[in-house]
Amino acid sequence: MPEVNDVPEIEPNPFKGQGILQDWPLPASDPAPVSALLARCPKHAPTPLRDAPDLASACAVAGLHIKDESGRMGLGSFKALGAAYAIARDACAAGGDPPSAAGRTYVAASAGNHGLSVAAGAAVFGARAVIYLADTVPEAFADRLRAKGAEVVRAGATYEDSMAAAEQAAADKGWTLLSDSSWEGYTDAPLAVMEGYLQLAAESVEQMPEPPTHILLQAGVGGMAAALAAHFRAAWGDAPQIVVVEPDAAPALRDSIRAGHAVTAPGPVSCMGRLDCKTPSMIALAGLSRDADSFATLSEAEAQDGVATLARHGLATTPSGGAGLAALIAGLPGIGTEARVLAVLSEGPEDG
After folding, report:
1. Measured in whole angstroms, how far is the alpha carbon of residue 112 from the centre of its chain?
2. Rounded to whole angstroms, what are the CA distances from 337 to 2, 266, 293?
3. Which of 30, 40, 127, 134 has its CA at a distance of 20 to 30 angstroms from the CA of residue 158?
C-alpha cells in the first residue's frame, strides 16, 4: 500500500451544475435506443456487478460494487459498446435487410480497446476497419486488432500523433473517421460512440441494490466518464459524489476545469495507456464540467499498487482498467467509512 501521505490529489469542480462550453452538445442520457439495438445482437449480455466486501473493508468503506467490463461481448472492455454501436446505427440507417455497412471504411486512432470495437463492428456489418496506433501501444493489442480483421497502421509516438494521422487519412481517402473524442466540427460520431456506453450505465443502475454515495470514473478523453455521469445524474440525481480519475501524467480534464476551457496537458508517457490522452473530448468536457463533483489524479506507483491489490482480490485488470479503484485503494480523500462506492473495472488484463 502507498505511504500514508501518498494519496491521490483531488480538486472540486467549481462548475458543477452549470458546466462550461455551453455552445457544445452534451452527452445523451437515455439508454433506450442503445438497449433496443443491442437486444438484436446475439453476442450481447449484461456484464456483472460484483459486490466486493473484502476489498471494501481493506479500503475502509461501507460497501463497494464493481461493474466488471472484462467480458463485454467477448472483447474484454466497455469499449465494445461504443464504436460497434455507432457502426450498427449507421448500418441500420442505410435501410438494408439485413443491415449492412458494406463499401464503407472506418478509420480510427486507438490505444487498443476503441480499435477493437471499430474492428468488431466493421466485421459484423461488412465494412473495412483501419486502425492507427501510436508506437507506445503494445504489439499484443495490434495483434488482437488484426485477429478481428482490422488493418493496423503505426503512426507517431503519442495517441495525439495517431489521431492526427487517422484524421488525415480520412480526409485524403474519403473514409469515415470514427473517434471517441470530439473537437470543433466533429461531434456526430463521438456522440454516437458515447451513447453506446449508456448501456453500461443502465445496467449498473438496474443492478445496484441502492444508489451509491460515491462513483469513481476513470477518464482518458472522457467519453465513458461523461456518458455514465449523464445517466447516473438522470437516474440518481445530485446525491452521489462523482469523482473523475485521470493519470497525473495526463490530467487533461482537470487542467481544463482549472482553466475554464479545453487545454492540452503536457506530461510523460503513462502506464495507464488507455487513459494517457493529453487533450479532452470537448463533448465529454462539457458534460463532466456539469456533472462531476471533483477531479482526481493518480500517480504511476498508485496505479501499479492498485492493480496488484485488485489481483490479490481476484480482479485481473490493467492500470487503465483499474484506475478508479486504484484511487480508492490509495486513499482517495473525501470518502469516509460510511461510503457506498460504485466503480468500473473497464477492461480485463492485456493478455486476457
Report:
1. 12
2. 19, 35, 19
3. 127
Residue type present at position 96: G
- At residue 66, φ and ψ (nearest 5 deg) are -120, 120
> Quick check: helix, strand or coil at residue 253?
helix
d(CA 58, CA 309): 10
CB distance 198 to 31 below 8 Å: yes
Amino acid at 157: A
pLDDT at 4 over 80: no
218 Cβ neighbours under 8 A, 6+ residues apart:
224, 225, 244, 245, 246, 272, 275, 320, 321, 323, 324, 344, 346
Q: 15 near 257, Cβ under 8 Å?
A: yes
Q: Would the pLDDT of 158 be above 90? A: no
State the cell numbers at 31: 439508454
Look at strands 128-133 and 105-110 and give their pairing: parallel
Q: State the helix-helix crossing angle for 188-196 and 282-291, rounded to 10 degrees.
A: 50
Q: Which amino acid is at 11?
A: E
List 106's β-bridge partners, or say none. Answer: 129, 176
Q: What is the CA radius of gyration of the chain?
A: 19
- Mean pLDDT value of segment 222-244: 97
CA distance 206 to 153: 40
pLDDT for 167: 96
Alpha-carbon gap, residue 200 to 35, rounded angstroms: 10
